[in-house]
Every structure is written in C-alpha cells, then in structure tokens.
Design goal:
The protein is α/β, with parallel strands linked by helices. It has nine helices and ten strands. The protein has one domain.
C-alpha cells in the first residue's frame, strides 16, 4: 500500500480498528433529531439497521441560525463557513457571478493539491442542469451541491460546461457501476434528489418525506456500507438543517465505527469537514480549527493520528493515500 501503513479489514458494524481511508458523505434534508431517532415507522431502516450497525451523535447542532436555508449549510460542509471575503451565502440561489466565491480555502481544492480525487454523485442531473450542474432541473437542485459555488471548480463565472467541474460530477446512476468496478475516488459526496432526501418538492410521488428518504437509504446505502467494510471506508450520513431545536441527526457506519454507540459530544458540520480532512491526511482549514472531530464515534486507532494533522496555512503536504482499487 502506498502509505506503508497496514489497514485491517473490518466487517460492517464491526468494532475492529482500521485506519479509515475512504469517505462517503450522504446529504439529507430538513429533519431534526427527534423526527428521526426513535421513529421506527417512517424511519424504519435508519432505526432498525443503521443505528444498531453504526454510531450516532445525540448532540449534533446547527451552527447557523434558524431560518438560514440549505445552500449555506452545504457550502459550510465544503469550507467550514458560508462567509468569504468576496461573498456570504445566505440564500438558495443558483451559482452565478454574484452567487459564488473565488476562495480556494475549501476541501476539494485541498484534495486536488494533495493529488487526491473526489466525485459528486448527484441524482437527476442531465443536459438541462449542465455537465457542471449549476442549473436546477426536475428534482435536482444546485443548492444541495456545494462544489458548484466555488469558481475554481465551476468556473468564473460558473458555467454548465466547465470541464474541470464536469470531470468530478456524475449522475447517481453511475455509482453502482463504479462500486462494482472499485473505481472510486477517496472522497465521495452523494446528493439524493428532492423527493429522496426528505426535502420534498411539488410533484414528488410520496408526501411522507421521512419515509421516502428512509426507503431511498434502504435501497442505496447497503452497497456503500459493504464497500466501506471491505475498503477501510465510512459512510457519514448528515442532515443540513432542522427546526428551532437546532439538533440534527447524524450517523456514521463502516470500518472502525462503534456499533450501536450514541455519542453525546457536541458536533457541527465543521466536525464533519475536520474529520474528512483527518481521514484523508489533509491540513485542517482554519475555519474548523476549533471544532471537535468525530473520533469519539470510532474505536481507538480507526482514524489516522490527529497529531500529524497540520493547519492548512502551514504549507505541509498530505500523506500518500493507500489504494484499494480507489482512484487517486
């Protein structure tokens, strides 16, 4: 393996320690903790399978104020903030010259600088959205795709045909084939469409949004979890925002996770980003310096040593990434 580090294979839900090296982030929508945990009817897969198999946070809080919409939360998952020197994201508007940022202080730029690949699998993209999907169409909404708001990804101004962006974005329908072939990048971000992410939209066939999202997870997560189990990976299931309580569901399933564990430590979306950086050997962005990472949800030794992680402006190089049929 390229890093020279041994990695133990762990079965899904196992407490066997493994140095996690593959990350799937699956982004869901608009439910607070109390609407998901304990709902064995509408969220039967989450409660009956994922919670016993994985670890969950009981104090995951929204760092943005109540009423701030989806888009700023997704940008936060990518950069640890929604406020940049040239723009602050406060709406759900599509990417444009005035609704984008020139900042390069974000995760996918870190990955590129470290020679690591990333892929966004977006459900429902096509000709109308652009191969760099900056336009909404059908049940696809760019507000749930954080990468297209950064000009070093989507172009300046953001454009449907930006080649560098298109090279990293696929329709969700491509994921099963990539899983089967083992041709995955180390970082994968998955966005269900509005009918499947618990958000909902006019024309969605199921008005029970939690049940529709839970059924989508039941159909789509098992192959991810199986891949994660065999390839030192984890699935991070995150919600963008909830209600006035500010407490969101959050689950981790995969290698090195404490099965059935409920962690009470305070986490935010910054915690997710900081943990992805730690797993992939990247420096910590200054915006997430003060956040807790998710290490309490993992068995000891499952995550790479935090002591080797540096601040993003320190100019250090990321460690090499081991490959298990995973694209660099």
């Amino acid at each position: 393996m390229g890093s020279g580090q041994s990695t133990k294979r762990a079965d899904a839900g196992s407490s066997v320690a493994a140095t996690v090296q593959q990350v799937f982030v699956v982004a869901m929508e608009n439910e607070n903790l109390g609407q998901i945990y304990g709902d064995g009817t509408d969220a039967s897969y989450i409660n009956g399978t994922l919670i016993p198999q994985g670890a969950r946070a009981t104090n995951f809080v929204d760092e943005l104020a109540v009423g701030v919409p989806s888009e700023p939360h997704y940008v936060w998952l990518e950069a640890g903030t929604n406020a940049f020197s040239d723009h602050t994201f406060t709406t759900d508007a599509s990417p444009s010259a005035s609704n984008s940022t020139a900042s390069t202080a974000h995760l996918t730029t870190q990955l590129a600088n470290a020679g690591l690949g990333w892929t966004a699998y977006e459900e429902g993209i096509g000709a109308a959205t652009g191969s760099c999907p900056i336009a909404g169409s059908g049940f696809y909404a760019p507000k749930h795709d954080p990468f297209v708001f950064f000009r070093d990804v989507a172009g300046s101004p953001p454009a449907k045909t930006t080649a560098g962006c298109a090279a990293h974005v696929k329709d969700l329908s491509a994921l099963p084939g990539d899983l089967a072939a083992g041709s995955l990048t180390p970082y994968v971000f998955i966005t269900p469409n509005l009918c499947h992410d618990m958000h909902g939209a006019s024309g969605c066939p199921d008005r029970n949004l939690i049940q529709a999202g839970d059924q989508w997870l039941a159909a789509n997560l098992p192959p991810l979890i199986a891949f994660a189990a065999g390839h030192a990976g984890v699935v991070l299931l995150v919600w963008d925002e909830g209600d006035a309580s500010g407490h969101l569901p959050f689950l981790v399933v995969g290698s090195g996770v404490k099965p059935g564990y409920a962690g009470a430590q305070t986490y935010t979306h910054s915690s997710v980003l900081k943990t992805v950086e730690r797993i992939l050997g990247l420096p910590t962005l200054p915006t997430v310096d003060d956040a807790s990472d998710l290490s309490d949800l993992f068995v000891p030794g499952a995550l790479p040593d935090a002591a080797s992680q540096t601040r993003a402006d320190a100019g250090t190089e990321a460690r090499p990434h081991s490959s298990f049929g995973i694209q660099p």
